[in-house]
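Sequence in, structure out. Go.
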Amino acid sequence: MDLTSYAELAARLVNTSVAGAGRQDELATIEAYRAFMADRAALCARVTSADLDALRELRSQLQMIFADGAGDNGDEAAARLNALLARHPIHPEIARHDGGTWHLHHADSGSVADRYAAGAVLGLTNVVTSLGTDRLRHCEAPSCPHVLVDMTPDRSLAYCSDRCAAKASVTALHERRR
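Output:
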């Protein structure tokens, strides 16, 4: 089971709330959500407006967890994750595919929102229990409101994307020249 990709689902969902500058909320419509999740067919098939409502609620809960992690409030992040674990039970299963070995997978059961929530919560729970809540961060680029999950061995990931890292480097260069 690639729990890292599940944790990235959580950050990805939180980052959907950043609309504007030519970008719409990916949870605004079913079509927008399908485009947003086009790389995850199992999470965009049969999506309904009720799923979007549930995902918006999950997004607000995950935003608080990232804020707690970034704010060094691990106890509150863990309490919020425990509440989400109770609300969105994880159903693991043993799987083997693509010529690989047996491994653990999150079973695809329930609605689209149920599957998304269970995967995202499972991923964040794994990160928090194995690496700590300080791995849940806000992007350090001054104008970027996105969150990220730092999976680097030395806890060095500061930016949500190469674009933000490049912008920060250019800004720092301009500052030094002044």
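Check: Residues 30 and 161 are 26 Å apart (CA to CA). Strands lie at 92-95, 103-106, 136-138, 147-149.
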